[in-house]
Write a structure and sequence with these properties.
The protein is mainly β. The protein has one domain (3-106): Rieske [2Fe-2S] iron-sulphur domain (Rieske Iron-sulfur Protein), CATH 2.102.10.10. The chain is 0% helix and 41% strand. The protein contains no helices and eleven strands. It has strands at 3-4, 9-13, 23-28, 31-38, 41-46, 60-62, 65-67, 74-76, 93-94, 96-99, 102-106. Strands 1-2-11-10 form a four-stranded antiparallel sheet, with no helix packed on it. A four-stranded antiparallel sheet has the order 3-4-5-9, with no helix packed on it. Strand 3 and strand 4 (31-38) form a beta hairpin. The two termini are 14 Å apart. Bound molecules: FE2/S2 (inorganic) cluster. Residues 49, 51-52, 54, 68, 70-71, 73 line the site of FE2/S2 (inorganic) cluster.
Amino acid sequence: MAKTGRPGWIRLGPDDRLGDRPLMPITVGGHSLLLVQAGGRIVAAERACPHEGADLSLGRCVGGRLLCPRHRASFDLRDGSVSPGWSFRALRLFRIESASDGLWLAVEAGLTVRTP
Ligand code: FES
């Protein structure tokens, strides 16, 4: 699935890869991530909830927020911040770029990917 072509980025496929799906789990370099369509843009996030590890691909996206299916905390998809009343860390988000040759994921701190 993931291909390299430019340093520091991984190609995830065509930019219409999600189609009408609001959420799509993916695996990149052994990392479980989640692609989310929110407000006309695509966001990449870690797939496990930072609270107790629930699978966020089973959640919902509403009004620019990703809702955890287990305890209903929600995360702002602009910065990963958690809804009021929770004290655990923010959801980790990763940079995505939609280009003419597809959808690209930035390889940054916290997302190490080994390439052959
Ligand atoms: S596991 Fe997500 S809010 Fe508790």
